[in-house]
Design goal:
single chain; alpha/beta; inorganic pyrophosphatase (n-terminal core); Diaminopimelate Epimerase, Chain A, domain 1; 3 domains; 5-stranded parallel sheet; 16 helices; 18% strand; globular; binds manganese (II) ion
Protein backbone atom coordinates (compact mmCIF):
# COMPACT_ATOMS: atom_id res chain seq x y z
CA UNK A 1 0.00 0.00 0.00
CA UNK A 2 1.16 3.49 -0.69
CA UNK A 3 -0.69 6.73 0.04
CA UNK A 4 -4.13 5.58 1.17
CA UNK A 5 -7.31 6.75 -0.50
CA UNK A 6 -8.20 8.49 2.77
CA UNK A 7 -4.92 10.42 2.65
CA UNK A 8 -5.46 11.38 -0.98
CA UNK A 9 -8.99 12.52 -0.21
CA UNK A 10 -7.84 14.44 2.86
CA UNK A 11 -5.31 16.46 0.85
CA UNK A 12 -7.84 17.06 -1.94
CA UNK A 13 -10.37 18.44 0.56
CA UNK A 14 -7.83 20.64 2.28
CA UNK A 15 -6.83 22.13 -1.09
CA UNK A 16 -10.42 22.44 -2.26
CA UNK A 17 -11.61 24.14 0.94
CA UNK A 18 -8.66 26.51 1.26
CA UNK A 19 -9.05 30.17 0.35
CA UNK A 20 -5.48 31.36 0.13
CA UNK A 21 -3.05 28.47 -0.12
CA UNK A 22 0.69 29.07 -0.34
CA UNK A 23 2.63 26.33 -2.12
CA UNK A 24 6.40 25.76 -1.83
CA UNK A 25 7.81 23.40 -4.44
CA UNK A 26 11.05 21.89 -5.70
CA UNK A 27 12.72 23.39 -8.78
CA UNK A 28 12.76 20.24 -10.92
CA UNK A 29 10.11 18.92 -13.35
CA UNK A 30 8.46 16.82 -10.61
CA UNK A 31 8.20 19.78 -8.24
CA UNK A 32 6.99 22.18 -10.91
CA UNK A 33 4.44 19.70 -12.22
CA UNK A 34 3.10 19.09 -8.70
CA UNK A 35 2.69 22.83 -8.19
CA UNK A 36 0.99 23.33 -11.57
CA UNK A 37 -1.46 20.52 -10.81
CA UNK A 38 -2.38 22.04 -7.44
CA UNK A 39 -2.56 25.56 -8.86
CA UNK A 40 -4.82 24.64 -11.76
CA UNK A 41 -7.13 22.81 -9.36
CA UNK A 42 -7.19 25.77 -6.97
CA UNK A 43 -6.35 28.98 -8.84
CA UNK A 44 -6.39 31.06 -5.64
CA UNK A 45 -3.02 29.43 -4.90
CA UNK A 46 0.30 31.19 -4.86
CA UNK A 47 3.50 29.31 -5.59
CA UNK A 48 7.06 29.77 -4.39
CA UNK A 49 9.85 27.79 -6.02
CA UNK A 50 12.53 26.66 -3.57
CA UNK A 51 15.82 26.59 -5.46
CA UNK A 52 19.35 25.47 -4.73
CA UNK A 53 18.72 23.49 -1.54
CA UNK A 54 16.83 20.26 -0.84
CA UNK A 55 15.50 21.89 2.33
CA UNK A 56 12.78 24.45 2.92
CA UNK A 57 14.75 26.48 5.44
CA UNK A 58 13.57 28.72 8.27
CA UNK A 59 14.05 31.81 6.08
CA UNK A 60 11.02 30.85 4.03
CA UNK A 61 8.83 31.39 7.10
CA UNK A 62 9.07 35.12 6.24
CA UNK A 63 7.15 34.41 3.04
CA UNK A 64 4.41 32.81 5.10
CA UNK A 65 4.33 35.79 7.45
CA UNK A 66 4.10 38.20 4.50
CA UNK A 67 1.46 36.36 2.53
CA UNK A 68 -0.76 35.22 5.40
CA UNK A 69 -2.09 32.07 3.73
CA UNK A 70 -4.79 29.95 5.38
CA UNK A 71 -2.77 26.82 4.59
CA UNK A 72 0.76 25.96 3.45
CA UNK A 73 1.63 23.12 1.09
CA UNK A 74 5.18 21.79 0.61
CA UNK A 75 5.60 19.71 -2.54
CA UNK A 76 8.48 17.41 -3.50
CA UNK A 77 11.00 18.89 -1.05
CA UNK A 78 13.04 16.15 0.69
CA UNK A 79 13.56 18.25 3.82
CA UNK A 80 11.73 20.81 5.88
CA UNK A 81 13.37 22.72 8.70
CA UNK A 82 11.74 22.33 12.11
CA UNK A 83 12.42 26.05 12.64
CA UNK A 84 10.32 26.84 9.57
CA UNK A 85 7.43 24.89 11.06
CA UNK A 86 7.86 26.49 14.48
CA UNK A 87 7.99 29.98 13.02
CA UNK A 88 4.72 29.34 11.17
CA UNK A 89 3.15 29.26 14.66
CA UNK A 90 0.47 26.65 14.35
CA UNK A 91 -0.50 27.38 10.76
CA UNK A 92 -1.68 24.26 8.96
CA UNK A 93 1.16 22.81 6.87
CA UNK A 94 0.73 19.86 4.52
CA UNK A 95 3.96 18.30 3.26
CA UNK A 96 3.77 15.83 0.36
CA UNK A 97 6.96 14.11 -0.72
CA UNK A 98 8.43 10.80 -1.89
CA UNK A 99 12.06 10.98 -0.74
CA UNK A 100 13.41 9.26 2.39
CA UNK A 101 10.78 9.67 5.17
CA UNK A 102 11.50 12.38 7.76
CA UNK A 103 10.25 13.09 11.27
CA UNK A 104 8.94 16.58 12.07
CA UNK A 105 6.47 17.98 14.58
CA UNK A 106 3.56 20.23 13.74
CA UNK A 107 3.15 19.25 10.10
CA UNK A 108 0.82 16.87 8.27
CA UNK A 109 3.31 14.73 6.45
CA UNK A 110 2.41 12.47 3.51
CA UNK A 111 4.93 10.14 1.93
CA UNK A 112 4.19 6.82 0.17
CA UNK A 113 7.41 5.38 1.58
CA UNK A 114 6.07 5.53 5.12
CA UNK A 115 3.69 2.72 4.12
CA UNK A 116 5.94 0.95 1.64
CA UNK A 117 9.60 1.86 1.41
CA UNK A 118 9.86 0.54 -2.15
CA UNK A 119 7.17 2.93 -3.38
CA UNK A 120 8.89 6.11 -4.47
CA UNK A 121 6.45 7.16 -7.17
CA UNK A 122 6.99 10.89 -7.81
CA UNK A 123 5.15 13.69 -6.06
CA UNK A 124 3.48 14.67 -9.34
CA UNK A 125 1.97 11.17 -9.50
CA UNK A 126 0.30 11.73 -6.12
CA UNK A 127 -0.64 15.29 -7.01
CA UNK A 128 -2.42 13.88 -10.05
CA UNK A 129 -4.23 11.30 -7.93
CA UNK A 130 -5.32 14.21 -5.71
CA UNK A 131 -6.60 16.59 -8.40
CA UNK A 132 -7.48 14.07 -11.14
CA UNK A 133 -6.97 16.53 -13.98
CA UNK A 134 -4.22 17.74 -16.36
CA UNK A 135 -2.74 14.30 -16.95
CA UNK A 136 -0.19 15.69 -19.44
CA UNK A 137 1.29 17.99 -16.80
CA UNK A 138 1.47 15.10 -14.37
CA UNK A 139 3.25 12.91 -16.92
CA UNK A 140 5.88 15.57 -17.65
CA UNK A 141 6.72 15.60 -13.93
CA UNK A 142 6.57 11.83 -13.49
CA UNK A 143 8.79 11.10 -16.49
CA UNK A 144 11.23 13.80 -15.33
CA UNK A 145 11.74 11.82 -12.11
CA UNK A 146 12.54 8.63 -14.08
CA UNK A 147 9.26 6.92 -13.39
CA UNK A 148 6.54 5.36 -15.51
CA UNK A 149 3.84 3.99 -13.18
CA UNK A 150 1.60 1.65 -15.11
CA UNK A 151 -1.82 3.07 -14.21
CA UNK A 152 -1.24 6.66 -15.29
CA UNK A 153 1.12 5.89 -18.17
CA UNK A 154 -1.36 3.44 -19.75
CA UNK A 155 -4.07 6.06 -19.48
CA UNK A 156 -1.73 8.68 -20.92
CA UNK A 157 -0.70 6.51 -23.88
CA UNK A 158 -4.38 6.00 -24.60
CA UNK A 159 -5.17 9.73 -24.51
CA UNK A 160 -1.96 11.07 -26.05
CA UNK A 161 -0.43 8.39 -28.30
CA UNK A 162 1.49 11.13 -30.17
CA UNK A 163 3.31 12.12 -26.96
CA UNK A 164 4.08 8.63 -25.67
CA UNK A 165 3.85 5.58 -27.88
CA UNK A 166 2.67 2.22 -26.59
CA UNK A 167 6.07 0.64 -27.30
CA UNK A 168 7.77 2.72 -24.66
CA UNK A 169 7.83 0.74 -21.44
CA UNK A 170 10.78 2.04 -19.46
CA UNK A 171 11.24 5.46 -17.87
CA UNK A 172 14.55 6.28 -19.60
CA UNK A 173 13.04 5.86 -23.06
CA UNK A 174 10.05 7.94 -22.03
CA UNK A 175 12.36 10.73 -20.89
CA UNK A 176 14.85 10.73 -23.77
CA UNK A 177 12.89 9.29 -26.64
CA UNK A 178 9.37 10.71 -26.60
CA UNK A 179 7.59 14.03 -26.91
CA UNK A 180 6.35 13.95 -23.32
CA UNK A 181 10.04 13.63 -22.42
CA UNK A 182 10.67 16.84 -24.33
CA UNK A 183 7.95 18.61 -22.37
CA UNK A 184 9.59 17.32 -19.22
CA UNK A 185 12.88 18.80 -20.40
CA UNK A 186 11.09 22.12 -20.99
CA UNK A 187 9.87 21.95 -17.37
CA UNK A 188 13.48 21.50 -16.29
CA UNK A 189 15.08 24.17 -18.47
CA UNK A 190 12.38 26.79 -17.91
CA UNK A 191 13.36 26.77 -14.24
CA UNK A 192 16.98 27.67 -14.94
CA UNK A 193 18.44 31.14 -15.21
CA UNK A 194 17.32 34.43 -13.75
CA UNK A 195 14.63 34.20 -11.09
CA UNK A 196 12.41 36.89 -12.63
CA UNK A 197 12.45 35.01 -15.94
CA UNK A 198 11.73 31.73 -14.21
CA UNK A 199 8.73 33.22 -12.40
CA UNK A 200 7.37 34.62 -15.66
CA UNK A 201 7.72 31.23 -17.33
CA UNK A 202 5.94 29.46 -14.47
CA UNK A 203 3.13 31.99 -14.59
CA UNK A 204 2.62 31.32 -18.29
CA UNK A 205 2.72 27.57 -17.68
CA UNK A 206 -0.20 27.88 -15.26
CA UNK A 207 -2.27 29.15 -18.19
CA UNK A 208 -1.19 26.93 -21.09
CA UNK A 209 -4.17 24.89 -22.14
CA UNK A 210 -2.76 21.79 -23.75
CA UNK A 211 0.46 19.97 -24.56
CA UNK A 212 -0.13 20.86 -28.20
CA UNK A 213 -0.17 24.55 -27.38
CA UNK A 214 3.18 24.22 -25.66
CA UNK A 215 4.75 21.80 -28.04
CA UNK A 216 3.66 23.36 -31.30
CA UNK A 217 3.74 26.85 -29.74
CA UNK A 218 0.44 27.85 -31.28
CA UNK A 219 -0.04 30.99 -29.11
CA UNK A 220 2.22 33.99 -28.41
CA UNK A 221 2.61 32.94 -24.77
CA UNK A 222 3.70 29.45 -25.81
CA UNK A 223 6.13 30.90 -28.36
CA UNK A 224 7.69 32.97 -25.61
CA UNK A 225 8.17 29.86 -23.49
CA UNK A 226 9.59 27.98 -26.41
CA UNK A 227 12.09 30.75 -27.11
CA UNK A 228 13.31 30.70 -23.49
CA UNK A 229 13.55 26.94 -23.56
CA UNK A 230 15.46 27.01 -26.83
CA UNK A 231 18.05 29.44 -25.42
CA UNK A 232 18.67 27.15 -22.46
CA UNK A 233 18.72 24.11 -24.67
CA UNK A 234 21.32 25.67 -26.97
CA UNK A 235 23.58 26.26 -23.98
CA UNK A 236 22.93 22.72 -22.81
CA UNK A 237 23.61 21.14 -26.21
CA UNK A 238 26.92 22.96 -26.52
CA UNK A 239 27.96 21.59 -23.11
CA UNK A 240 26.81 18.12 -24.11
CA UNK A 241 28.77 18.35 -27.36
CA UNK A 242 31.89 19.41 -25.52
CA UNK A 243 31.91 16.24 -23.41
CA UNK A 244 34.78 13.98 -24.37
CA UNK A 245 33.44 10.46 -24.97
CA UNK A 246 36.58 8.82 -26.35
CA UNK A 247 37.31 6.88 -23.16
CA UNK A 248 35.22 3.71 -23.38
CA UNK A 249 35.09 3.17 -19.61
CA UNK A 250 34.62 6.52 -17.98
CA UNK A 251 33.06 9.74 -19.19
CA UNK A 252 34.58 12.55 -17.25
CA UNK A 253 33.27 16.07 -17.37
CA UNK A 254 34.70 18.79 -15.18
CA UNK A 255 33.71 22.41 -14.85
CA UNK A 256 34.41 25.39 -12.69
CA UNK A 257 32.10 26.48 -9.93
CA UNK A 258 29.26 28.86 -10.78
CA UNK A 259 29.41 27.99 -14.45
CA UNK A 260 26.59 25.55 -14.72
CA UNK A 261 23.29 24.38 -13.37
CA UNK A 262 22.89 21.51 -15.81
CA UNK A 263 24.66 18.83 -13.74
CA UNK A 264 21.66 16.57 -13.22
CA UNK A 265 20.35 16.91 -16.79
CA UNK A 266 23.79 16.22 -18.19
CA UNK A 267 24.61 13.17 -16.09
CA UNK A 268 21.17 11.66 -16.74
CA UNK A 269 21.46 12.07 -20.48
CA UNK A 270 25.06 10.79 -20.62
CA UNK A 271 24.06 7.74 -18.61
CA UNK A 272 21.21 7.09 -21.01
CA UNK A 273 23.42 7.42 -24.08
CA UNK A 274 26.35 5.48 -22.60
CA UNK A 275 24.82 2.89 -20.27
CA UNK A 276 28.02 0.81 -20.03
CA UNK A 277 30.22 3.60 -18.76
CA UNK A 278 30.67 5.35 -15.48
CA UNK A 279 29.69 9.01 -15.69
CA UNK A 280 31.60 11.42 -13.51
CA UNK A 281 30.78 15.09 -13.27
CA UNK A 282 33.40 17.03 -11.35
CA UNK A 283 33.12 20.54 -10.01
CA UNK A 284 36.41 22.24 -9.22
CA UNK A 285 36.57 24.22 -6.04
CA UNK A 286 39.84 25.44 -4.51
CA UNK A 287 42.11 22.40 -4.48
CA UNK A 288 39.26 19.88 -4.50
CA UNK A 289 37.04 18.10 -6.99
CA UNK A 290 33.45 17.60 -5.93
CA UNK A 291 32.15 14.55 -7.73
CA UNK A 292 28.81 13.27 -8.86
CA UNK A 293 29.03 9.72 -10.22
CA UNK A 294 26.50 7.55 -12.00
CA UNK A 295 26.50 4.09 -13.52
CA UNK A 296 23.72 1.74 -14.58
CA UNK A 297 25.76 -1.45 -14.87
CA UNK A 298 27.99 -1.15 -11.81
CA UNK A 299 27.45 -1.04 -8.07
CA UNK A 300 29.39 2.11 -7.31
CA UNK A 301 29.99 2.33 -3.53
CA UNK A 302 32.52 -0.56 -3.20
CA UNK A 303 34.30 0.60 -6.37
CA UNK A 304 34.53 4.13 -5.04
CA UNK A 305 35.90 2.84 -1.72
CA UNK A 306 38.65 0.91 -3.49
CA UNK A 307 39.47 3.82 -5.79
CA UNK A 308 39.94 5.99 -2.69
CA UNK A 309 42.87 3.81 -1.56
CA UNK A 310 45.84 6.11 -1.02
CA UNK A 311 43.75 9.08 -2.13
CA UNK A 312 42.87 12.03 0.07
CA UNK A 313 39.09 12.23 -0.09
CA UNK A 314 35.78 10.52 0.61
CA UNK A 315 32.78 9.21 -1.26
CA UNK A 316 29.72 7.00 -1.19
CA UNK A 317 25.98 6.91 -1.72
CA UNK A 318 23.50 4.77 -3.63
CA UNK A 319 24.28 1.75 -5.80
CA UNK A 320 23.99 3.65 -9.06
CA UNK A 321 24.52 7.24 -7.96
CA UNK A 322 27.33 8.37 -5.69
CA UNK A 323 28.84 11.59 -4.51
CA UNK A 324 32.33 12.32 -3.33
CA UNK A 325 35.19 14.74 -2.97
CA UNK A 326 38.90 14.24 -3.64
CA UNK A 327 41.95 16.50 -3.63
CA UNK A 328 42.81 17.71 -7.11
CA UNK A 329 46.33 16.31 -6.90
CA UNK A 330 44.93 12.81 -6.25
CA UNK A 331 42.17 13.01 -8.85
CA UNK A 332 44.04 11.22 -11.69
CA UNK A 333 44.97 8.40 -9.30
CA UNK A 334 41.34 8.09 -8.19
CA UNK A 335 40.17 7.82 -11.79
CA UNK A 336 42.85 5.22 -12.65
CA UNK A 337 41.92 3.10 -9.64
CA UNK A 338 38.25 3.31 -10.54
CA UNK A 339 38.91 2.29 -14.14
CA UNK A 340 41.06 -0.63 -13.06
CA UNK A 341 37.97 -2.23 -11.50
CA UNK A 342 35.80 -2.06 -14.61
MN1 LIG B 1 10.49 14.28 -7.04
Amino acid sequence: MSLTNDEIEYIRNELLNSTRPLIFFDDDPDGLSSFLLFYRFKTESKGIVVKSSPEVSAEYAKKVEEYQPDIVFILDKPMLSQDFIDECKGKKIIWLDHHAPQKRHGVKYFNPRIHDDADNRPTSYWAYRIVEQDLWIAMAGIVGDWALPKDVSDKFKEEYPELLSKDIVNPQDALFNSDIGKISKMFSFLQKGKTTEVLKAIKILTRVESPQELFEHTTPRASLLYKKYKQMDDAYQSLLNSVDTTDKKIILFTYEESKMSFTADLSNELLYRYPNRVIIIGREKNDEMKLSMRASNFILPPMVQKALDGVEGYGGGHDHACGGCVKKKDFPKFIEQLKAQM
